[in-house]
Amino acid sequence: MAEIVVTDRDGREHRVPGKAGLSLMETLRDLDYGVAAVCGGLCSCATCHVYVAEPWRSRLPAMQDDERERLGQLDGYRPETSRLSCQFRFDQKLEGIRVEIAPDE
After folding, report:
1. What is the pLDDT of residue 32?
2. Where does 1-105 have alpha helices with state H?
3. Strand 98-101 versus strand 13-17 pairing type
């Protein structure tokens, strides 16, 4: 089964099954230590903000302007690693992806 490696806000690492075809946010919001995902994936709240490790960043779809704008408003924004987990779907090419849940803002 495909796996996602998630570091929670307390620095603990968790290995969870990836759900092909769903946005990463949909998997992370179902976890006790995951993301809030308040807007449900509409790219309007940034409560699904994560930091994506290499080499997976280059495997993600390009960031669109609305995502970049939303992230740019956050204190915890890291231009090289920040993404909204609602903006890409999990699939086999992301097997083993490592993400860190960004600070709650």
Report:
1. 86
2. 24-28, 65-72
3. unpaired
